[in-house]
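Sample pair:
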Amino acid sequence: MKITFLSTFLLLSLIGFSQTKFNSENYIVSKDDVETNTFRKDSTAHALVIYEYGNSYIDETNFNLKTEIKRKIKILDREGFDHANVIIGLYNNDQGDSKEKISNIKATTSNIENGNIVRTKLGSNQIFREKYNNNITRVKFTLPNIKEGSVISYSYTLETPFLFKYRGWAFQNDIPTLHSEYRASIPANYEYNIKLVGEQKLDVNETTLKKKCLVASTGASADCLTTKYVMKNVPAFIEEDFMTTRDNYLSRVDYELKILRGFDGGVKNYTKTWKTTDKDLKTEQSIGRQLNKKSIVKGLLSSEITKEKNQLKKAQGIYKYVQENYTWNKEFNLFKEVSLKNLVKNKSGRASEINLLLFNILNANNIDVKTVLVSTRANGLATKIYPVLTDFNYLIVQATIDGNTYLLDAVDPYLAFGQLSFRCLNQYGRLLDLKNGSYWLPFTANKTTTKTFRTELTFNDEGNIEGSIKSKKTGYHALSAKRNYFSNSSEYLKAYKDTYTAMDITNHEVSTKEKNSETFEETFNVTIEPEIIGENIYINPFIFKYISENPFKLQERTYPIDFGYKEAYFYKIKIDLNGKYEVVELPKSLSMKLPNNTGTLLVNVKQEENSVMVFLKFSFNEAIYTSNYYNHLKSFFSHIVNTQNNSLIVLKEK
């Protein structure tokens, strides 16, 4: 124990010493920065931010926001060369009379030659500008003389007249960062909402008051609140499966102007309360004015639907009508001008238009409905602390029938009634009750998504294995299966056969008839030629595999694992030995759980007189797991993959 402890201590000391060789205290490129060519804390890193610094303040001469930026990066290998390409976007408004500027660009590459640091500076003729679109101009430069082991350092000053968004700062990037520092000096007459995003913690969070930091030509002045934020040893943000947009998790600080108090005494409120926002939405063209369009929806429904007395069945009929008759044009643009009249005429429109039509038809048929604003998974989480309507890009409908609520999205013809599209499973939305006040509505998938295979096999007289398969999928597994099958049934079957080439698949039948059914059920027959080595017959009982490889490969994950929904998998196989074979070896049974009973893995192997049965079940009882569960999930998936790939039933003839 003493030897192990001493070895561990020495190793940690060595790693700690190797990291401190980098000068992460300031912008100066030291000899150690250039000579140190490994980063042991993350052996997969191709480059490393040694030091970065940002300082934002209001310029007294023109009251524009200026930001000084400095960055020092170590290039560890050739794959890190891309970090020597720097692109900076500058924004200008549609009128072109207000625009962002850049100045004081300085850049240097440092290398070791014959034991000395050789510095190569960026020339002014190596800086280029290009028009990216009507609002963005890009400034581009590439650091010269890049080699493995180079240290690049560059600095510049940004100036913007757009103070609604104070300059934010990202402490985390796709490469590790040893020291990231941001300073902000905000005059007291500018009041911002400040939001810290991500799971990384600040090492330094200091606030001081600077007197009369900003003085107007009239002599009026303002004190400044000066903040200093520092994060150290920030791991790289590497995207992996089961996450929403990286903007939800990337550690950063954001600002949005709340109130501006002018030196002339005027006060301008930029951020409203939800109470005033709800009031504005009542008359807003793209939502509020679209909520009472009974004349447009008149005569759209068949008498079979309108005469239905059961309100739930009527709502389901209306939902199906909209799903089958109106096509999404793949556009979002939630607050763009809406025309339900054109939607009805052209049978195609934006997502919000289709769901607003659904709202109006349900409303015209005396069903209690409200709209819900949503920010999709790819769009990021909507800000909760104050109203930011531009955070939302989608709209769905909530229907209340006989005391039960259903969230409806008619954009996808394969969604079941009450099933949200996967893109909407982003934790919460804002329910717009324009009479009583809007509120945050938490939502997830309403049911556990499942996938089940039930297999019965037997040995035929030729020694091959044949039998029948019954498959049932629910929830989001059913959704993808329905979409693939109903769009092209022959390609669906071909994909099965191409995936499972070791078996002959025949008599495939699908019992599900409706596109928006809650389940997808199918049956088929299979014939398998067993693997025979010597006297033994080898059979992997998992002829259908749920997970082919472990999706989790990172050493560390700093953001949540977001499946979107709870799910469970079931697999049962029974092999009739037909009285001709005896068991030599069986797979081992297994039982394990994720912490706090948030997941279960069960493998049960049973032998009867003339048959072998194998049962597999694994479930994820949470839709979202915190990063603390990452290593547990990684191990959990490894056991699942290993069970499916390496389980063998060994038989021989009696």
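Residues 1-19 have pLDDT under 50 and may be disordered.
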